[in-house]
């Protein structure tokens, strides 16, 4: 709470919400990753390199899942980056209603562990992740990570 006569707190210069869409094509995966990386750098978000690399892996995995599993019902995917004073959140939205679950580690498989990786990166960073349904019947998969490492580990809901 502010004291009388104090100046209201202003958002830090790097705070905000940015959203872009991309076609549900393989080429959109690296484009989304580069767009998020460039946005974070351009805004001057105070993110450590390890956290940035983890965040970019999360973006890649979530966009890849939308491209591979939702493209038939969702020719476009949306990527949103929201930055607060102490956290950064990335979300990927598509129009497919299926709520994915993280698979268990099966080293015989060559794929299918993307959400497990997202969940683990998020947990190790002290963040949280989840899946939400949209009003139009699609889903948003998101991960929020603290800009500074917190002692507690978040839980993922996949």
Question: What features would you describe in this structure?
Answer:
- With 158 residues, the protein is of the alpha+beta class.
- 31% of the residues lie in helices and 24% in strands.
- It is built from 3 helices and 5 strands.
- The chain has helices at residues 28-43, 49-69, 114-125; strands at 16-23, 76-83, 87-94, 128-133, 139-146.
- The protein has a 5-stranded antiparallel beta sheet with strand order 1-2-3-5-4, covered by helices on one side.
- A hairpin with a 5-residue loop joins strand 4 (128-133) and strand 5 (139-146).
- Helix 1 (28-43) packs antiparallel against helix 2 (49-69) and helix 2 packs antiparallel against helix 3.
- The relative contact order is 0.17.
Count, helices: 3
What's the Cα radius of gyration?
17 Å
Average pLDDT taken over every residue = 86
In which range does the helix fraction lie?
A: 25-40%
Quote the beta fraction. 15-25%
User: Mind summarizing the main beta sheet?
Assistant: 5 strands, antiparallel
Strand pairing plus helix content: what structural class?
A: alpha+beta
Form type: globular
Give the uncertain stretches in residue-range form: 150-156
Distance between the termini: 36 Å
Count of extended strands: 5
Spell the H/E element sequence.
EHHEEHEE
Order of the strands making up the biggest sheet? 1-2-3-5-4
């Amino acid at each position: 709470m502010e004291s009388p006569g104090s100046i209201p707190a202003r958002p830090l210069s790097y705070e905000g919400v940015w959203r872009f869409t991309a076609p549900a094509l393989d080429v959109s995966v690296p484009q989304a990753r580069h767009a998020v990386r460039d946005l974070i750098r351009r805004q001057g978000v105070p993110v450590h390199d390890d956290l940035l690399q983890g965040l970019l892996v999360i973006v890649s995995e979530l966009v890849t899942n939308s491209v591979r599993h939702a493209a038939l019902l969702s020719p476009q995917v949306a990527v949103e980056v929201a930055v607060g004073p102490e956290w950064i959140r990335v979300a990927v939205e598509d129009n497919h209603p299926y709520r994915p679950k993280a698979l268990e580690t099966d080293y015989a498989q060559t794929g299918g562990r993307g959400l497990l990786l997202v969940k683990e990166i998020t947990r190790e960073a002290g963040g949280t992740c989840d899946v939400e349904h949209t009003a139009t019947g699609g889903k948003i998969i998101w991960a929020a990570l603290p800009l500074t490492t917190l002692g507690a580990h978040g839980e993922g809901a996949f």
